[in-house]
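dumping the sequnces here before i forget
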Amino acid sequence: MWASEQKPIEDGTPAEVTVDSHEAFRDSVRTFLGQALTPELKRAGELTTSVFSDFEAALKWHKILHAQGWVAADWPEEYGGPGWDIHQRYIFQEECKLANAPSLVMMGIQMLGPMLMHYGTEEQKNHYLPRMLSGEDIWCQGYSEPGAGSDLASLKTTAVRDGDDYVVSGTKIWTSMAHHANQIFCLVRTDKTVKPQAGISFLLVDLQSPGITITPIVSLDGQVEQCQVFFDDVRVPVANLVGEENDGWSVAKFLLEFERGGHNFTIDVKKQLRKIHHQAQQTPWQDGSRAEDPVFQHRLAEAEIDAMALEQTELRIKGAVATGGNPGALSSLVKVVGTELGQRLNELAMDLAGPAAGPMNLEALNPGFDGDTCVPEHALTTMAEYINNRASTIYGGTAEIQRSIIAKKVLGL
Amino acid sequence: MNDEQQMLRDSAERYLRDNYDFAARQAMADQGIGIDEQHWQNFVAMGWTAMSFTEQDGGFGFGLAAIGQLAELFGYHLVREPMLESALLAGEVIAAGTEQAKQSLLPAIMDGSALATIPYPTDTGPELSERNGRRTVRGRLEYVPSGGTATHLVTPASHGSAPAWVIVDLQAPGVQRQTFLTHDGRLGAHVTLDTDLEDSDLLLSGDDAQQMQTTVYQRAMLLAAAEGVGAMQGALDLTVDYTRQRQQFGQPLSAFQALQHRMADMLIQVELARSLVTAACDAVDGNSDQALTLSLAAKAKVDSAARRVTQEAIQMHGGIATTNEYRVGHYFKRMALLESWPQHRDQVIEAFIQGRQPVN
Ligand SMILES: Cc1cc2nc3c(=O)[nH]c(=O)nc-3n(C[C@H](O)[C@H](O)[C@H](O)COP(=O)(O)OP(=O)(O)OC[C@H]3O[C@@H](n4cnc5c(N)ncnc54)[C@H](O)[C@@H]3O)c2cc1C
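..and the predicted 3d for all of it:
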């Protein structure tokens, strides 16, 4: 079935996540969450309608986890991680998600951190990693540009060497959380004379630098999460270059695999399923509820079966990674399946919400809100989630680009 | 299409294309302003509020085939003023009501000074009762479409065990509204009624009321379906235009066959839906015994096609489609909400199953 040089999933070594020896670990995580997750933080988790939670809540939660030494679950101990194995990391993520902990802003710890460990200088590691852990630095990712989305290598923001600085000019778009961040990691063009991929460098830029303007973009749900960032002759010390000059493309590719492969879609999907079951019980239908409606249950069961297939696939991948493999093109497979299944689940939730999907409820989606809402609690986030999750097949490499990767790398076409 | 219909369509198309600016629409919607007065007056001037009423009542006597054309254009241009709902749904009930109600309200609907809406269908509706010579209506209606913009509510009610339709002035004492902005840029409301009615406010009762329930919600279904055809066409046209212009990997997105085929699929869906909607409108106008089945089929088809078409439109645009400033996502949001108007899409399919001819 898998014709190719790159076998997608190594056989053998099945990763069984819920092994007995980890039950004690799971209990300790639960105990911690029971104490540390305040009602306001949980509320922020419940009201999350995209990959990002309310920023203030996310930052608070970040600091609580940092005090516990758990904020960088995937990091090795030498850099301040808890040194967990792959099963513990999964359990931790799963418990946090199902307990409605706010989502952390992930561009620093999940994306840039591992990359700096691999490519960064000692100074860069010593300076940036602790500030990432403490939450002192909030990072955003400056890759995409108005003219360079799927075709990222065509990016035009330039960095020209001038003494000990680069002078950066151009613009980045769709930069998530730029309005909250104080740092941005960017791909910039440092050589226009070579083929596009070969003239790109990876730069760390302080967002407080003179010449930077950040313009928020209002999303379809009426909220702001993305921005456009303008660079007008911004001076950036050469010391902020990561990797070699003109070697930014390989640095970025390393990072993209972390962005796609480091994520456990099964956990998101499980949370959505749980919510839908709950919502179905509360949704009147004919003489009972939607939970008793065979038509809806059939549709839901089909999605659950796909969720099980996704989970088993993620486990097989973990098994391969645990024995030293690279997820490679597999992260593309899981990204397509995980995001598209998530979108199907949003549709099921919409089927339940009916007219309650209508009101925008912008104030009621704020965790501090304590007034009357005009829709039932179980439908409060449904439409905003449906809207925002359309982006999941666009960011982090579109579903089309992922399919192209599978066709090329796995099928060898 | 006959000449009159063609003229209506052409003038509406010209007006909306040249004047119904999306950025201005969105700016108003974001500020929570329910209708654009300027457009509203122009719609009235073009006769759109009078289209469906008979000539004796001061209207033009157009059938659903013509009205469907207009609804389609409303969908295409993302018109958010609930004019068709006011004239064609609430107006239909008023026109069938008492002579007095007709005389006092139809002119106001037609000249645009009144804006009437109808609620989601309910099993029982608010209750009508008479006490000490006063007639009172009590009850709560949720998610009333454009309930925050309307001046009047025309609603089914129950009068003892008998069905009825009444009209309520939404400014009257004893009417409470909780108004909210909806994702399609309109103002909905939960409406709580505990208010006195005039005799003439009881528009219909008994069998006539029952019959009206079927007629009006079938119309609502078809109007929504026709609007959906326009919205899908709008989403498709934008996608085709955008992918022609947007360059990635040194070529326009439209050059990628993977996307071409999907746009072809979108077109197929739009055309299938259009065929059913047109057939259903004709069947209603011709009093065909297939009218109900075709209407249900048309709405069910639009529900599923619109999901797919508007989702695909967003996907093929990429990031730009996720912004409030760009048009294509607004088709998606509008169609997501129309899936449950006037009935849930699963109820529509359920009704279709109940009504279809047995196969032998
Ligand atoms: C919510 C959200 C958050 C984001 N956050 C960030 C961020 O923090 N930092 C950042 O740098 N970027 C971010 N992005 C940007 C994201 O990475 C880009 O949107 C994405 O890469 C797609 O680029 P594009 O939007 O320009 O679409 P385009 O590349 O123009 O693509 C449009 C459509 O064409 C398709 N297409 C393109 N090429 C092909 C092909 N060869 N074959 C077939 N189909 C093709 C695409 O798949 C897509 O469907 C974010 C985007 C969103 C929506």
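The domain at 209-356 of chain B is CATH 1.20.140.10 (Butyryl-CoA Dehydrogenase, subunit A; domain 3).
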